[in-house]
Amino acid sequence: MTAPKKTMLSAVQPSNRLTLGNYIGALRNWAQLQKDYDCVFFAVNLHAITQRQDPKELREQTRRAVATYIAAGIDPKEATLFIQSEVPQHAELAWVLNCYCYMGELGRMTQFKDKSAKAGENIPVGLFTYPVLMASDILLYDTDLVPVGADQKQHIELTRDIAIRMNNAYGADTFRVPQPVIPQVGARIMSLQDPTAKMSKSDPDPNGSVYLNETDDQIRKKLKRAVTDSGSEITDDESKPGVRNLLTIQSALTGKPVSEIVASYAGKQYGHLKVDTAEIVVQSVSPIRAEADRLMAEKSFLDQILQTGAEKARIRAAKTLKRVYEHLGLR
Ligand code: TYM
Fold first, then answer.
1. Rounded to an integer, what distance in angstroms lies between the CA atom of residue 251 and that of residue 177?
2. Is the CB of 96 inside a 6 Å radius of any atom of ligand 1?
3. Fewer CB within 10 A of the terminal residue: the chain, N end or C end?
């Protein structure tokens, strides 16, 4: 008998269109790893409302996120695909975990510090407890591996801490303790306009990000305008974050080591690097855009996948929640 596959789980927040950073840091790796795992992927729309969203757009972006997973290579016949809000156990377990997570821990989360600094005076409580809902997402499915970009590592460490704390108090089988999987290349793609900051869906400057539903020409324009520096030699160097970012994007998408790419640019200029990077990005993004558009137009196909996925997810999540409630004396 073969051992059951381990569970791999991940998600994207549908707070805007997905970016090239989401593809390189996450989706691409989900697709590469999927065949060896029992996969659970979903769109975290409950996380998205930690910032104000337009309801119509949120609904659309949420479906588009899942369509993009499939377009990026996730096999909908194998993976469990769904929308977070359709599985009520995520919010239920989050409450329980809230009682075992400390204010100090959440206050130390880098993403909270960044986002709350931007939110000004009125910081929603949800922004603070956001990582607890993420821990619930992960722990509900007895997850082994969580493939994410570097920015989510701290949240997964917190998830592990909460799980270990509760296992110590209520028995080692309360939760499976997950591991993050961070890609070697491309774990942190930077903004095209400010290469010292992460490429982010929530960046108010749309020129900083390549979105996965943009046209080839829009992509080319953005890469042509990518901020570099006043030098001219193409080297992989800390002092050249803009050049390094373009080299990283190329390396992640082609699989070639950065050193080999640098060597191929001997005597060439930044302009060459930008044009070539643009073509490589277009080659990756263009088929994803076309397939996601097609899936968005074919409403019943996506509806069916999401309905089946939510049903499967609810059964699994209910089983875990029942186990946790029993361990805690809640039933
Ligand atoms: P989110 O929506 O910000 O990002 C989704 C995934 O994309 C990765 N990522 C990047 N990787 C490389 N370079 C970038 N510039 C870049 N920007 C984003 C992220 O690391 C992530 O893997 N809290 C999560 C969503 C979430 C989740 C979960 C993830 C909720 N529950 C459970 C895993 C498991 C988030 O906001 O990701």
1. 32
2. no
3. N
CB 48 within 8 A of CB 15: yes
Pairing mode, strands 37-43 and 179-181: unpaired
Query: Tell me: the pLDDT tens digits for 146-204?
Result: 999 999 999 999 999 999 999 999 999 999 999 999 999 999 999 999 999 999 998 99
Grade residue 272 by pLDDT with cuts at 50, 70 and 90: very high
Contact at 8 Å (CB) between 301 and 295?
Answer: yes
* Domains in the chain: boundaries: 7-182+299-328, 206-293
Q: Is 26 in the pocket of ligand 1 (CB under 6 A)?
A: yes
Tallying the residues shown for the chain, one arrives at: 331
Q: What is the pLDDT of residues 204-217, one digit of tens each?
A: 999 999 999 999 99
Q: Using CA atoms, how far apart are residues 177 and 144, in angstroms rounded to an integer? A: 7
Superfamily assignment of 7-182+299-328 in CATH? HUPs (3.40.50.620)
Q: How far is residue 207's CA from residue 225's CA, in Å, rounded to a whole number? A: 8
Decide if 198 is catalytic. Answer: yes
Residue 109 has pLDDT above 90, yes or no: yes
Q: Is 138 in the pocket of ligand 1 (CB under 6 A)?
A: yes
Let me know if domain 206-293 sits in CATH 3.40.50.620. no
d(C-alpha 329, C-alpha 25), whole Å = 40
* Cα–ligand 1 centroid distance for 116 (angstroms): 18
